[in-house]
Write a structure and sequence with these properties.
The protein has about 425 residues and is an alpha/beta fold. The protein folds into two domains: about 220 residues, Alanine racemase (TIM Barrel), CATH 3.20.20.10; about 120 residues, Lyase, Ornithine Decarboxylase, Chain A, domain 1, CATH 2.40.37. Helix content is about 30%, strand content about 20%. The chain has twelve helices and 19 strands. The strands form three sheets. A nine-stranded mixed beta sheet has the order 11-14-17-16-15-18-10-1-19. Strands 8-7-6-5-4-3-2-9 form an eight-stranded parallel beta sheet. It has a two-stranded antiparallel sheet with strand order 12-13. Helix 1 packs across helix 3.
Length: about 425
């Protein structure tokens, strides 16, 4: 479901637009900075910006445009439907979709000039689509070098390459790429990356010996782009890094020269003074340790905040407080201490769950720790109920009226809100 506030269908006048109540603010200047940083690391290889899953929750179309402006040469998505949405928005850059089912619309992909990842079973369907469209398909053959997910097995590789070349000779397709995916590049000390790299080189050699004239060979993800130049080949596929998040445990975004692009924020919606031993939220797993003030934060697991992340940090008025009690569907609670009467200075103040951390505030990594997951999941799971607000967009050239309206939104909170100092 797409909520109107996320599409610009509602008035943006102060006090009427839900974007002022709660929003995920996306800094497109940070996206452009991160793409340039990763392009420098990858050079002379080109950069594919991975914008699957609505650009990891950041907004696929604005992020794709920002990435291309900053020097990305390709875009990557998982599903053909995601690729078609980018084409419908007028984005014409080289674009690869690689995860399919028997119901995937290969004909639409061929018609739209979308490159198609092929692990083997898709080949006949891609060829049928090419015949139907009277247009050769562009495919990237995928091989499983050790991750154990999709991709052709090593035993079937020779046959797949041979069949693809037969169809290429008939003018039905063009094999433009070979790719695979690394399993442990975020743990640089592990030997499996070396093993996968050796296998990848072998399968590329087999294909080239069979006459495949490749445009791109691609293996590296964000961690390999930053730590393994020997995996770069012609193209690197970067996802997490373009959103400013670190793929390495124990190494921050700032240490990698990356800037987190998403800030998840809302307004404190209620403050109330409570007595000693007041229980909080479902199950009453938390009780106050004395008279205190509870502040209500109107975000919950329906908004994508993990239900299990009790203790996750929320920054209000320059201080960071942990969530207490269970996170509910629409709301959570922080205990701000015995500040009474009823936290008058905090009511209506901006509450930030995570952002770039520049002010010492919480980050997506902090919420990942609280939830027992990774930073990828924290940003990707923020639901469509939370409007995206894009800041630092480039001039609105070739965009729809709705997109231009969204672009004109600023990152400022509602004028009546109390912003953090």
């Amino acid at each position: 479901m797409t909520y109107p506030a996320a599409t610009g269908d509602l008035s943006a006048a102060p006090g009427t637009d839900p974007q002022y109540e709660r929003s995920a603010v996306i800094d497109l200047a940070a996206i452009r900075h991160n793409v340039r940083r990763l392009a420098d690391a990858a050079s002379p290889a080109k950069v594919m910006a991975v914008v699957k899953a609505d650009a990891y929750g950041h907004g696929a179309v604005p992020v794709a445009r920002a990435a291309l402006e900053a020097g990305a040469s390709w875009l990557g998505v998982a599903h053909i439907s995601e690729a078609l949405a980018l084409r419908a928005a007028g984005i014409e850059a080289p674009l690869l979709a690689w995860l399919h089912t028997t119901e995937s619309n290969f004909a639409a992909a061929v018609a739209a000039g979308v490159d198609i990842g092929c692990s083997g079973w898709e080949l006949e369907r891609i060829v049928a689509a090419a015949r139907d469209q009277e247009r050769p398909a562009r495919i990237h053959l995928k091989v499983d070098t050790g991750l154990g997910r999709n991709g052709a097995t090593l035993e079937s590789w020779d046959q797949l390459v041979g069949e693809a070349m037969e169809y290429q000779d008939e003018g039905l397709l063009r094999v433009v790429g070979i790719f695979s995916h690394l399993s442990v590049a975020d743990e640089p000390e592990r030997p499996e990356t070396d093993e996968q790299l050796a296998v990848f080189r072998e399968v590329v050699a087999v294909a080239e010996d069979a006459g495949v004239d490749l445009e791109v060979r691609h293996l590296a993800n964000t961690p390999a782009t930053l730590s393994r130049p020997d995996t770069h080949f012609d193209l690197v596929r970067v996802g997490l890094g373009i959103y400013g998040l670190s793929p390495f445990e124990g190494q921050t975004s700032a240490e990698l020269g990356l800037r987190p692009a998403m800030t998840l924020r809302t307004l404190v919606s209620q403050c109330k003074d409570v007595p000693d031993r007041q229980g909080v939220s479902y199950g009453l797993r938390y009780h106050t340790s004395g008279p205190s003030t509870l502040a209500l934060i109107p975000l919950g697991y329906a908004d994508g905040v993990p239900r299990v992340a009790t203790g996750g940090p929320v920054r209000v008025a320059g201080r960071t407080y942990p969530v207490v009690g269970r996170i509910a569907m629409d709301q959570m609670v922080i205990d701000v201490g015995n500040i009474g009467p009823a936290g008058a200075d905090l009511f209506g103040a901006e509450a930030v769950l995570f952002g770039n951390g520049n002010d010492g505030g919480p980050t997506a990594d902090d919420w990942a720790v609280a939830a027992g997951t990774n930073n990828y999941e924290i940003v990707t799971r923020i639901s469509p109920r939370v409007p995206r607000r894009f800041i630092n967009e480039s001039p609105a050239v070739g965009r729809s009226a709705a997109e231009r309206s969204t672009a004109e939104q600023t990152a400022a909170p509602h004028p009546g809100a109390k912003a953090m100092p």
